[in-house]
Structures are given as structure tokens and as C-alpha cells.
């Protein structure tokens, strides 16, 4: 059992958290790859035509990872059900205030989508949404963690979204890229912009915070999994057009958020 009071253990704990952040990014990538399979092939098709050795190894790895992370989840000191409704609502207000403030900060330096970007994206998003969007490229600078992260960790809320390592972050209708704009990252950010537009800032934030407290993982929040799924669908076949806004409304009607 490690102890933060032991200097040698502190070094190990810092390294552990660095490795955990890398694992989170790798798992998110694996989830997006799996979503691409799920969108195109049924479980029956994969079982029948997939390479058996690859399938067995993939399933074995997924099961082992699931068991490992479930054991960790059971050890977590924070349980979303231990938070009272007033605490959850306070968290929602803090996150909503942060999103609103970041939008105001970056809006002045944001630029409209370029004609080429609009041409590629118009089959998937309404012109009204695309006209509103502003983008900001930080060119290697990174978004810092939100100021309330320290408070969240102090009460046992861990595994918070690492904004510093994300390709882009959407603040309502402003999409901020930690580096340069990549087409698939732009599409992903626009899915979140469509969610903001349809749900509104307050409802989006409420759904996100409650789902995160329930699942304790950013990439399992339905708002995020839907964005990954639609991004994968776009990357897999950009010539097969669909309406992102219609898909968001469908998930909303079906209560999947």
C-alpha cells in the first residue's frame, strides 16, 4: 500500500497518474475504433466472419480490462450516490459558469469556418449552426485544467476530463483546438456544438455532470459517446451524408442522454 507521506511513494504515485492518463487516451481511441465496428457490423457478422484469433485476443483484453477497472471502481472513495442533490446542482452551476466564461474569453479571437470546411460539413450540419461557429487554434498551447478541479479531487472526484490532452474542446458555439484544426476533430467539436444548440447550456451541463458522477469516466458519458460514434461514422464514410442535429434530437427523444 503506497503512502503519500513517503517521498519514494510520492514519485511512484506521480508516475502512476501519468500512466493512467495515457491509458485513458488509449481506451478512448479503442472505444472510437470499436464504435466504427459497431456502426457497420453486427455482433453476429463479427463472430461469423471476423478473424477468430484476433477476436479471441480482443475479447480477452476487453474482459480483463473491464474486470480490472471494475475492481478499481469498487475501491473509489467517492460514489456519485453519496452526493446530495444540492451538491450536484452546485457542480452543474460551476461547470456551466466555466463553459460560459471560456466562451466569452475565446469568442473575440475566434474565426468563422473556412469555405472549404463548410463545403465538407454542410451535408451533416445546418447552415445556421455552421454560420454561428467560431474556431480558435492555440498552436501547441494548452487549455489549463478548470479551477474547480482541485476542489473536485479533494472530495474524491477523480478521472476528470483532461482538457490539456484533448484535440478540441467545445464551449457552446466556440471550438478551441489545443493545436491545429484536424477535420475529424472539427466534426467531433461540431457534434458537441449541435448538442449545446439543441439542449441549451444548462441542460447539456446537467446531463453531462450527472452522467459523469454516475459513470466516473468522461468517455462513458452519453454526450461524449454519441459524439465519438458520429465522428466515427463520418470518418468511415464521409460520402454517406446524415444530419447530426436529427441524430441529437433522436437521442434526446429516446432518453439516451
Describe the model.
This protein is mainly alpha-helical and about 260 residues long. It has a domain at about 80-255. Helices cover about 65% and strands about 5% of the residues. The protein has helices at about 5-40, 45-50, 50-75, 85-105, 115-120, 125-130, 150-155, 185-200, 200-215, 220-235, 245-255; strands spanning about 110, 135, 170, 175. Strands 1-2-4-3 form a 4-stranded mixed β-sheet. The relative contact order is 0.12.
Would you summarize the structure shown here?
By secondary structure, this protein is mainly alpha-helical.
Topology record:
Layout: H1 7-40, H2 43-49, H3 52-75, H4 85-107, E1 111-112, H5 115-121, H6 127-132, E2 134-137, H7 149-154, E3 168-171, E4 174-177, H8 183-199, H9 201-215, H10 222-236, H11 244-253
Parallel strand pairs: 2-4
Antiparallel strand pairs: 1-2, 3-4
Helix pairs in contact: 1-10, 4-9, 8-9, 8-10, 8-11
Strands of the widest sheet, in order across it, are 1-2-4-3
Average the pLDDT over all residues and give the rounded result: 89
From the N-terminal CA to the C-terminal CA, the straight-line distance is 38 Å
Q: Helicity range of the residues?
A: 55-70%
Strand content: 5-15%
Q: So what's the overall shape?
A: globular
Based on secondary structure, the structural category is mainly alpha
Total number of helices = 11
Regions with little confidence, pLDDT below 50 for 5+ residues: none
Radius of gyration: 20 Å
Q: Give the oligomeric state.
A: single chain
Number of strands: 4
Write the H/E string, N to C. Answer: HHHHEHHEHEEHHHH
The major pleated sheet works out as: 4 strands, mixed
